[in-house]
Amino acid sequence: MRESDEQMIQSDALYWAHIKQLNLRDGIKFSLQGRKYLCDLVNKGKRISNIKKGTQIGATTAKYLEAVHGCLYRRFNQNIMYMMPTVKAVENLAKVSFDPIFDYNPWLAKSVGTNSASQKEINGRSIVFVGAQPQKVGGTTKDSANLRSISCDAVYRDELDLMDMDMVEMSKQRLNASEFRYEVNFGSPTYPGYGIAQLYDDSDQGKWQIECGNCRKFTCLVEVWPKSVIKVNGKWIRACKHCHKEIFVQDGSWQHDYPERREAGYWIDGLISPMADLEEYMFRYDNSDGTKRAEFERSILGREAAIKEEQLTIQNVYDTCTNEPMRGYSSCETAMGVDVGKHALHCVTGIRTGAKTYDVMNVSSVSGFNDVHDLALKMNTKFSVIDSLPDTHAVRDFAKAEPYTVRLCQYNESKISDPVWDSNTGVVKANRNDWMDGVNEVFIKNLIRIPRRSEQIDEYALQLTKTAKVNIVHPETGEKKPRWIKLAGGDDHYYHSTLYFMLAASRTAARKNANTETKRYTTQINKLTSRVR
To answer: What's the rounded Cα separation, in Å, for the pair 524 and 261?
Structure first.
């Protein structure tokens, strides 16, 4: 064996298992064939990794092989802690997944010392299995003797969403004396804004992007599902979202939306598995709704899901259209809402015509803050609310430079009766659920008027349908809580920019119908818009 191969075997757990043809169980060998997407998950990248996944894709296998390899080649100085939601779950995992590796690979079994349901000692290093079940101390305090007694260099948390979160936090303390402090959180997501879904959202958000051999553009299958799977000549294929030609998983690579973030994130869905049955997936998707659809999205797509209670339809939005065209200017003072997306800024501009009635005069997607500045001048904007994320510094710089009032919006999940406006910090804090209820209400009750249909209004209407209200059941307490969530299959930037517009409009005087107040484009406005910042 070449020296370079031996170095790879010692440094890369999956390469080791692939080259050694490691038996996972009787007659089943580990192989990277068709599973190129697993390679970046092991021994690479950042200290903390968050893996949001479907089931039976190979990610869990990759992580427990990494643990075995880490002990065998002493990649860590101390123990590896492997956590699962319950003691019974870790006992089953040890028996079903770990024991066969030693039983059917005699050469590896020679390195094993202690081999029990709670501990696997390999070459002088141990994998310690822990159930994340707390004990009550003093009535309300949670504790765990297992978590307190183990010093570790690495913690693997398998099926994070089903764990007691206090025990998850306690497990972090087991790394205090480590020079590695390696953490891996993984599992199928349950509902939005919780557990692995939240950790992934806060991570650098890695997605498997497949390059099309025809147009050379990239597609993430799960992001555009179900449009990413189409039927051609009687066969279901993975399709490029741009040119609709067949694409192949092995032509993909991990690309991260926010590479500067400190924690790594990977979204691994069943569509990229070599075992994927696309015809079966399409049948299950097309013939399910409610609880069955939510389970399909979690287990196959690796996507958090909840049953929708309230959601705008495109027709709800079209019903508020007037016969007036989109306006590119205004002589009356307006309010503006701006949502900051990854590739564009989405602006909604108009006036308040009553206590809770509005006229939208302009809906625009622009490429940068200079364009927002120019639009605000044309529309005679006097008060604006803008999304404070994801780049708070850039937004603050923009707000300070503008000649009108700009406030940065921060959503607050706690129950507050009215928005809190702080002129010192330039921030407005608003209850997320209440104000999203408000957006829904003005369209359902026809309290808002928008320009007549156009290509831009069609996109606006579509984005307003990509947010829905669900009743989420907390997996630990069983408590039901209403929450607005973003749905898959498209952006919802205009939903939030409409919310910000309504917030901004609440700080302005109510005016007449926008059509009666709008005058011809004046010389003064023309001069303003010709300025160079």
So the answer is: 45
pLDDT class of 533 with cuts at 50, 70, 90? very low
End-to-end CA distance of the chain: 64
Strand 334-340, strand 427-431: pairing: unpaired
**pLDDT greater at residue 132 or residue 475:** 132
Contact present, 404 and 333 (Cβ < 8 Å) = no
Q: Are 154 and 70 in contact (CB under 8 A)?
A: yes
This prediction has a pTM of 0.65
Both structure tokens of 501: 């517009």
Residues paired with residue 122 on neighbouring β-strands, in sequence order:
112, 125
Nearest of 131, 113, 130, 133 to residue 121 by alpha carbon: 113
Question: Is the CB of residue 170 less than 8 Å from the CB of residue 82?
Answer: no
What is the predicted pLDDT for the residue at 138? 44
Which segments of 415-464 does DSSP mark as H helices, in order? 432-444, 455-464
Q: Which residues contact 348 (CB under 8 A, 6 or more apart)?
A: 336, 337, 360, 362, 363, 494, 497, 498, 500, 501
Domains (range + CATH), the chain: 3-203+262-299 (3.40.50.300), 314-529 (3.30.420.240)
Q: Within 479-521, where are the H helices?
A: 493-505, 514-517
What pLDDT, in 10s, does the model give residues 464-502? Answer: 998 888 776 655 556 677 778 787 667 899 999 999 999
pLDDT given for residue 2 in this prediction: 54
DSSP-assigned letters across all residues of 375-425: HHHHTTEEEEEEE--S-HHHHHHHHHH-SSEEEEEEEE-S--SS-EEETTT
Please tell me the predicted confidence (pLDDT) of residue 116.
85
* Per-residue pLDDT tens digits for 386-406: 998 777 788 999 999 999 999
